[in-house]
Amino acid sequence: MTSSRRLSTVILPINRWHDGGRALWVRAEELGFHAAYTYDHLAWRTFRDGPWFGAIPTLTAAAATTERLRLGTLVTSPNFRHPVTLAKELITLDDVSDGRITLGIGAGGNGFDATTLRGSGEEPWTPRERADHFEEFVPLLDRLLREPSVTHEGRLYSASEARNIPGCVQRPRLPFAVAATGPRGLRLAARHGQAWVTTGDPKLYESGTAEQSLAAVGGQISRLGAACEEAGRDVAELDKILLTGFTPGSPLQSFDAFVDFAGKHYELGFTEIVVHWPVADSVFDIDTKVFERIATEAAAQFD
After folding, report:
1. Tell me, what's the pLDDT at 2?
2. Cα gap 287→105, rounded to integer Å
3. How do residues 45-94 score in pLDDT, each as one tens digit?
4. End-to-end Cα distance, the chain
5. Which of 8, 111, 168, 180 is most buried, by CB atoms within 10 Å?
6. Are 78 and 132 contacting, i.e. CB atoms less than 8 angstroms apart?
7. How many Å is the maximal CA-CA distance in the chain?
8. Residue 27: which of 11, 12, 47, 13 has the closest Cα?
9. Is 0.85 topped by the overall pTM?
10. Coil vs helix vs strand at 75
């Protein structure tokens, strides 16, 4: 697709590398996707009782087996990450991939990531506490990926002469794709993001309409624009990424349905649409032939 209308995929980390896992990332590159992402969770929803591998090692393996495909997380969160250790892993991953990494990052939710590391009787962070962590995490991670030595004494995170030499291959650091819909997160996207990510309005997923969803994400883009204006940035500088699968309707049920869905969202200002790689017997159980046709032929519809 053109630089402003890209198509990417997200591959769940559920397959053993030598039993089908590697082949998916190779195939994603063959199909011509702009990027292939994976989720960064300890466990996720209905997949909790099945195989689920770590995001950073998976992406490292994918970087070693692909050449052109951009790679990244959708998304990493402070729920079980610390900015100092994450920065070291990201610099290594950016090096292995020769500068093909995008960090999708968000505040995190209240799922298994929020509870797995909590002691007995210890409550997960509230939405406000997650936002507080996110608000300190992102600027500190930004510094850690840009500067050779960082010392920080914050309310929630500390770093004492944290060394990150030689830094990222991508300069001044690898790009951040900030997932956010609330005011605090949108301000972080405006100040630190090279891209912004949304899944739509979760309140509309089960009972809303496609038209309501379009209006909702259009409103999100408008609020992102306001946050950028406040930060002294042009909102056009940020890529706008839609992760599909969480909006009303079934845009992947057919090629034509996807083209209609994608066209409407590109017109709103999105620059990248991400579709889930098919997973049998799950909410992502997509017809493989339709999926591959979308990957290889949808671009021509938007020239």
Report:
1. 42
2. 29
3. 999 999 999 999 999 999 999 999 999 999 999 999 999 999 999 999 99
4. 7
5. 180
6. no
7. 56
8. 11
9. yes
10. strand
Q: Residue 38 has what DSSP assignment?
A: E
Half-sphere exposure of 11 (CA within 13 A, CB side): 28
Low-confidence residues in the chain, pLDDT < 70: 1-3
Token pair belonging to 5: 């209308």
DSSP label at 124?
P
Q: Determine the Cα–Cα distance for residues 83 and 176; give it in Å rounded to an integer.
A: 13
SS3 content of the chain, % helix, strand, coil (to 5): 45, 15, 40
Amino acid identity at 62: A
b (16+ CB within 10 A) / e for 187-218: bbbbbbbbbbbbbbbeebeeebebebbbebbe
Encoded amino acid at 191, one letter: R
Cα–Cα distance between 151 and 159 in angstroms, integer? 5
Which pLDDT does position 4 carry in this prediction? 77
Q: Kindly report the backbone phi and psi dihedral angles of residue 73, in degrees, each rounded to the nearest multiple of 5, phi listed first.
A: -105, 145
